[in-house]
């Protein structure tokens, strides 16, 4: 009898969570719609699709009336010289963004590490720098390197833009790293200290690797911010996509007597969307792999 009682009172093992556990959790949080609710959702979806289609039709009609859909204006961008200019400008943009990212991520991690130190003066100074860089507009820093820094030192146009991007985005990266470390279980730090490990050794061997693994998708997403920040090179007349687009508009008026303002920036927007969407897809892939 006692064996039966013990068997009945033993806790049951937890069932493993399968692929459908997310849907089950959602069903617990939200009531499934009934027949009438499903009909209303279907009607709302159809109305939304029809509304978007009608809006798109109106926009295309207005563009056609303005002559923005004329084939010669779009055919201009199939020319070999125009394509080569766009590819060269895209390469310049990616190079600028890549160099800024290579400098941003180590600097941001170092700043986040310093802000976690027990040394109060260092932590306060680093926190002041991070807060200042997060508050100051990037364009203001670009003007600082464009107008003020050349009075004291010689600096190329490339670094006049790369350094402001690094300064702003490294501050955000530092906060991401600090949040990643703070999200870890406090018991790991206490266990490491109990084993005689120093705080710096604990950070280097235990906390930092886990925080980097958690923040890796966010770091990839930061690349989107960096790529968009390269558009400020327009202020410096640096030949990235935005500035190259403005020169191509004037070139089309002279060479082909065409006004391609709308077409130019649509194509440039598509190029930015392709690059940033690819980075977002990479971030989602890394996040799925690191779960």
From TrEMBL:
This is ABC transporter permease. SUPFAM superfamilies: MetI-like. It comes from the Bacteria. NCBIfam families: HEQRo_perm_3TM. Belongs to the binding-protein-dependent transport system permease family. It is a multi-pass membrane protein. GO terms for molecular function: transmembrane transporter activity. The chain crosses the membrane at residues 39-61, 94-114, 126-146, 214-238, 258-283. PROSITE patterns: ABC_TM1. One of its GO terms (cellular component) is ATP-binding cassette (ABC) transporter complex. It comes from Actinomyces oris. Its main location: membrane. It is found in: Cell membrane. Residues 1-22 are annotated as: Disordered. Keywords: Cell membrane, Membrane, Transmembrane, Transmembrane helix, Transport.
């Amino acid at each position: 009898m006692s064996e039966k009682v013990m068997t009945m009172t033993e806790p049951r093992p937890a069932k493993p969570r399968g692929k459908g556990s997310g849907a089950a959790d959602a069903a617990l949080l939200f009531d499934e719609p009934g027949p009438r609710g499903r009909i209303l959702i279907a009607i709302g979806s159809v109305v939304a699709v029809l509304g978007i289609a009608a809006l798109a039709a109106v926009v295309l009609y207005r563009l056609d009336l303005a002559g923005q859909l004329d084939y010669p204006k779009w055919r201009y961008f199939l020319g070999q010289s125009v394509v080569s200019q766009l590819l060269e400008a895209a390469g310049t943009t990616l190079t600028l963004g890549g160099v800024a990212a290579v400098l941003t991520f180590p600097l941001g991690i170092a700043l986040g590490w310093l802000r976690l130190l027990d040394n109060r003066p260092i932590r306060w100074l680093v926190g002041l720098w991070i807060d200042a860089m997060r508050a100051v507009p990037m364009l203001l820093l670009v003007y600082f390197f464009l107008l003020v820094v050349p009075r004291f030192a010689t600096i190329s146009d490339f670094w006049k833009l790369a350094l402001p991007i690094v300064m702003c985005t490294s501050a955000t990266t530092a906060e991401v790293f600090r949040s990643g470390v703070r999200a870890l279980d406090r018991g790991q730090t206490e266990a490491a200290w109990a084993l005689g490990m120093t705080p710096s050794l604990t950070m280097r061997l235990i906390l930092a690797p886990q925080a980097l693994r958690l923040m890796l998708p966010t770091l990839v997403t930061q690349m989107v911010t960096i790529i968009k920040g390269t558009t400020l090179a327009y202020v410096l007349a640096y030949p990235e996509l935005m500035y190259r687009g403005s020169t191509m508009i004037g070139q089309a008026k002279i060479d082909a007597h065409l006004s391609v303002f709308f077409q130019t920036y649509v194509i440039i927007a598509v190029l930015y969307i392709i690059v940033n969407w690819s980075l977002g897809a990479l971030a989602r892939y890394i996040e799925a792999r690191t779960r």
